[in-house]
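Supplementary Data S3. Sequence and structure tokens for construct A.
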Amino acid sequence: MSKNIFQIRVGEKEVGKRLDLFLTQKFTYLSRSKIQKIIEQKLLTVNGKNPQPAYLVKEKDEIKFFIPQEEPKRFDPESIPLKIIYEDQDILVVDKPAGMVVHPACGRKHGTLLNAVLGYLGDFQLARAGIVHRLDKETSGLIVIAKNEQTQSFLQLQFKMRSTVKKYLSLVWGRMGSQKGIVDAPIGRSRMNRKKMTVTEKGKAAQTYYKVVKVLQTSEDQFVSLLEVTPKTGRTHQIRVHLKALGHPVVGDKPMAEIKAWIENLAGNFYMPTI
């Protein structure tokens, strides 16, 4: 079977769900809009027939669908310095700085990590220039880039199966209530501002583990905590959203004027309190 053809049978406990919602729950790396587009293009069948997205699935329904191979979009190679951590014939690992966008999007076609990778490796024909995951613009950290199709497919499968372990260091406001914990709360788009992500009952399942590394305190009795964070899912802005929901937003998410003033007060005046 082609790697782009998928087949699934509806179980007893899943009867009555909308087809598009059922499939996004089963294939979490596919968005609902992507599933709907596949249905509209008649690339999906239920028992050999083309359904509507609102079709309510029945027990033992045989669902088959095909995901067409995306044509690589053309982007401009740019001479942007990269901090290379590791490289061999199959992969490239770079340290993305804070402030750099990973992929070009509306309103930002240049200066991204993708442009920099193309400038370094050449304008080769891999979707998204071989970049198989992403980090938020303001997040620094390692990005793995595939240099050939076989490696790209292998890495994509690891991320889809969530076998890749991702760890982050996050400095948050306040003192955590426990030394370690887990945030298990669904994440989706805010009803008030569709550009923002938030914890919502109608969002997608999301889990984030954390443990306290250090607690710092300024002379003004202001606590901040350094956390090691391990997201088990990969929702947009997951760490920021979950930590904010705990009442401990990431320090960099505060207004810059407030950050600057806090840093000036912090300099030379912190210690490790007992936790």
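Construct B, processed identically:
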Amino acid sequence: MSGHSKWSTIKRQKGVTDAKRSQAFTKMANAITIAVREGGGDPASNFKLRLAIDSARAVNTPNVNIQRAIDRGLGKGGAAAIETVVYEGYGPSKVAIIVEAATDNKNRTTPEIRGTIEKNGGVFASPGAVSWMFSDVGMITVVKDNKSLDDVFEAAVEAGADDVEDSGESVEVYTKPHDVEKVKNALAEKGFTIQGAELFKKPTTTVLISEKAQAEKVLAFVEKLEDLDDVQKVYSNFDIPENLLQ
């Protein structure tokens, strides 16, 4: 498993702090709005919207916020349109990064993200510079509880998953993007506790970060990007040993 996947899992387990809860609600709402724009406002026929709503509810986003985001995606209310913009580059220790943003003003978002990357030891790159190092997958985080890795592996493969990786207290189950919901539901029906399910960019090559100072610099860099209001997700190919991540 890549270090960034482990890092995402650790943060998910810690939950959203009160200080960042409002920002999390905004990011979840933007994800819902974009899913509606791409596939319509009916969750029954739009699996990306179902995933976005599930993620929003997992952090206790109010239902009124969810409905407002759906309405915005449908063009109701006169709010400015939200679009997805993807940026690529390198961070400290030459780790590759992909930044997914949701914005109603690229002229504001692009210089903000570029500035954050360049002021914190990174390099802003052109589209395609690092995306070839990642593959698009579905990722389901399954809590082990009293189950073993073999238990999850057997059930996941039977449900159509492509791979599983141990992450300590949980297991990351990887699927093809359009199979993520099917596999998630199958695992839930078999009694497994699902902590999260999302579309994910999994690195195909990783950069090992073995020194504490390096690890701190890389994680601080990623967090500064994640803290930007317009940024939805940051993907990276760093591989930091779990003892340093903790």
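The first helix runs from residue 3 to 14. DSSP finds nine helices and ten strands in the chain.
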